[in-house]
């Protein structure tokens, strides 16, 4: 770094000042590194009241979305009898996220977050109610899901930015872990709730329940989150679409950001694609009615267990060292579906694959530190939209490939495991070295 201050002293004095400045830098690096290396407990993270509000609302949202996605997929499968259309229904809420992020992502760093998040939950409630109360054709129902999902990256980006704002160091990583754990538990609750409501009352009543949960999440945010101002970033005269495209382009031009995005997108999305075929797999294997819910529950159970162990018991640096082994575990588990396992082995494989999702915890700190601060919201929206889009595309492509080639659904699912292993090899060769907080502090 070049010092622009004029040299008005002797060489010895200048040397002394330089040594002092270097000492300050070293102490700053040491302090920042201590923040990263210090083990944080979940109780400390939940002690932040603003994060607690985000945690509760996020949990309600995931229950609602799990209930809506699976119920709508079952509704479409019942109406068409087609695994392909069932996969399309599963994917309909994912695919719009990429264009939403590309065109609207900058709003996550522009608008007041409380109103933005509450509005997003209200929009989700409106879509679920419309499908539940109006008997729409399959195509029209899919269109409603697409429209409601389009601005999703804006809401997700704003939520991610707030978590990064409220928590720092290893507390941020554990905050993400808590959201993952809550997401897994909420997905299980959504599946259980959905199965019960569908069995007792029907699919449309399950969609009404999803709308009620969305409304509850909106109320939690509106009443519990303080009124925070919009971030003072992009100029007011810059168009939203233009700013969103420019921000995404800037993020993708940064090699560490680009590689860390792909490392989080690819393995989880391939496995998520296999998840989208579980309903069809259970049907083709003639499992007992309701078995699909057991299989779909196995993946989030594994995710919950993996996040608890990796987040709670392992040191920050150990988490980062386990990224590749956990991705490999995920890929091998899903690859096992090529053998057409029965219900019990399939459940075990999905549990192991879910545990592998904990690899993402080892990438959270390096990813956050690679981001320009003024683009935090947009970056988190881009991260989520990439995962959602790939998870939406994968089951459709796999189902179409299986149908065209006459492949069994299990074989198609096994292909995603092979792709996950290929992604692990790529990450091993291209993964950037994690940027330490110490280096960042010294800049």
From TrEMBL:
<dbReference type="InterPro" id="IPR011701">
    <property type="entry name" value="MFS"/>
</dbReference>
<keyword id="KW-0472">Membrane</keyword>
<feature type="transmembrane region" description="Helical">
    <location>
        <begin position="345"/>
        <end position="363"/>
    </location>
</feature>
<feature type="transmembrane region" description="Helical">
    <location>
        <begin position="404"/>
        <end position="428"/>
    </location>
</feature>
<keyword id="KW-1133">Transmembrane helix</keyword>
<feature type="compositionally biased region" description="Low complexity">
    <location>
        <begin position="7"/>
        <end position="17"/>
    </location>
</feature>
<protein>
    <submittedName>
        <fullName>MFS transporter</fullName>
    </submittedName>
</protein>
<feature type="transmembrane region" description="Helical">
    <location>
        <begin position="140"/>
        <end position="158"/>
    </location>
</feature>
<keyword id="KW-1003">Cell membrane</keyword>
<feature type="transmembrane region" description="Helical">
    <location>
        <begin position="178"/>
        <end position="200"/>
    </location>
</feature>
<feature type="transmembrane region" description="Helical">
    <location>
        <begin position="116"/>
        <end position="134"/>
    </location>
</feature>
<feature type="transmembrane region" description="Helical">
    <location>
        <begin position="259"/>
        <end position="283"/>
    </location>
</feature>
<dbReference type="InterPro" id="IPR036259">
    <property type="entry name" value="MFS_trans_sf"/>
</dbReference>
<feature type="transmembrane region" description="Helical">
    <location>
        <begin position="375"/>
        <end position="398"/>
    </location>
</feature>
<feature type="transmembrane region" description="Helical">
    <location>
        <begin position="206"/>
        <end position="225"/>
    </location>
</feature>
<feature type="transmembrane region" description="Helical">
    <location>
        <begin position="289"/>
        <end position="310"/>
    </location>
</feature>
<keyword id="KW-0812">Transmembrane</keyword>
<feature type="transmembrane region" description="Helical">
    <location>
        <begin position="322"/>
        <end position="339"/>
    </location>
</feature>
<feature type="region of interest" description="Disordered">
    <location>
        <begin position="1"/>
        <end position="26"/>
    </location>
</feature>
<feature type="transmembrane region" description="Helical">
    <location>
        <begin position="84"/>
        <end position="104"/>
    </location>
</feature>
<dbReference type="Pfam" id="PF07690">
    <property type="entry name" value="MFS_1"/>
</dbReference>
